[in-house]
Design goal:
Low-confidence stretches of chain A: 158-169
Order of helices and strands of chain A: HHEHHEEHHH
Structural class of chain A: mainly alpha
Oligomer: homodimer
Number of strands of chain A: 3
Radius of gyration of chain A: 20 Å
Number of helices of chain A: 7
Mean pLDDT of chain A: 86
Largest sheet of chain A: 3 strands, antiparallel
Helix content of chain A: 55-70%
Largest interface: A-B, 70 and 70 residues
Shape of chain A: elongated
Strand content of chain A: 5-15%
Distance between the termini of chain A: 28 Å
Chain lengths: ~170, ~170
DNA sequence: AGGAGTATTCAGAAGATTGTGAATCGGGCG
DNA sequence: CGCCCGATTCACAATCTTCTGAATACTCCT
């Protein structure tokens, strides 16, 4: 029998894999989203996910390198605990930003190497510009949301939007 | 020997796969970014990419379903031509928005099913809120950029950022 | 220092994904 | 109406990723 509350986590993990994250890291990350406040040990994770310790080891290595989770090494205890980084969501965004910039550069090159097709080249440059805009704005978006959350009375971006069912689907 | 100007396209395609897009669609899409203004035929694509017609067929099916490219069926010519959708970049964004909403819903569920861990649950809700914020803002971001591009004199978002080397990498 | 438990690493198996080749379908032209 | 060319589909093969199991290294307690 599975542990309670794994269904939503598995669903969420599946979505993360759809955006490019490897499966096991995604599953570990979502399991940690439902962890007790002390976090989970590697053994806990292996048990809950039904995988080997090796799989957990590789997953947490990935997640730590991406700054998405923290390893909590408490002195006097060999058991490491893990939990989500406070800014894990922001990390998910900023991780993509440099990639967008590089992608924009490639698109510019594609366009420049195609002088015979002005319209096509213009479109490629347009996409490149947009990606650069994204790369610049997405980290700002994270900052703006954080600011809006810390000062909900302000006119800043409302964290809960308008309370409508944006979660549908 | 390869066709000219494929290097940047392959690089760009590799980056798209890193964000979750299957390889062949990514390669086709970036090849189309460097296409002549009339677009490429399926045979052109197969030749340039060094793959079979079947692979191209599957790729364009995927890309058309994602609204990332257009199939140009000219009457009197069985050869379909393809080119990027005018709003392909916007499509890449809006395609992710509903996924973020759903992911947010799962995170809320994860948090709600974990009442014993208030801090952890709060963090999960926080991520969910941020993802909802993203789902709401990202389409707006595309709209804002488009507006700023159509009216560059305005104070709107500058397409070319500040001219700094954001393309480095 | 010795012992025990934990994390990590590595080679290999299992699984999924991806692309090919051949047959089929479909539309247009002679 | 029949031929022809292009697109599509399907089963299979190659490739890559992913996870396991066993061996190794490391850390803390006695």
């Amino acid at each position: 029998m599975n542990h309670p509350g794994t269904e939503a986590a598995e669903q969420a993990a599946a979505m993360l894999t759809a955006v490019g994250m490897p499966r096991m890291p995604a599953r570990v990350m979502m399991a940690l989203a439902g962890s007790p406040d002390e976090g989970y040990t590697a053994a806990d994770l292996a048990d809950r996910l039904g995988v080997s310790a090796a799989a957990v080891s590789g997953a947490v290595r990935y997640l730590v390198s991406m700054r998405l989770i923290h390893r909590l090494s408490r002195p006097g205890d060999r058991r490491d605990r893990y939990d989500l980084a406070e800014d894990s969501w922001s990390g998910m965004i900023t991780a993509n930003a440099p990639l967008y910039s590089t992608l924009a550069a490639s698109l510019d090159r594609i366009a420049d190497e195609n002088p015979a097709a002005p319209a096509s080249a213009a479109r490629a440059h347009e996409i490149a510009d947009f990606l650069r805009y994204l790369a610049e704005r997405m980290p700002q978006l994270a900052a703006e949301w954080r600011a809006g959350r810390d000062a909900p009375g302000d006119e800043g971006p409302g964290p809960r939007a308008d309370g409508e069912g944006a979660a549908g689907g």
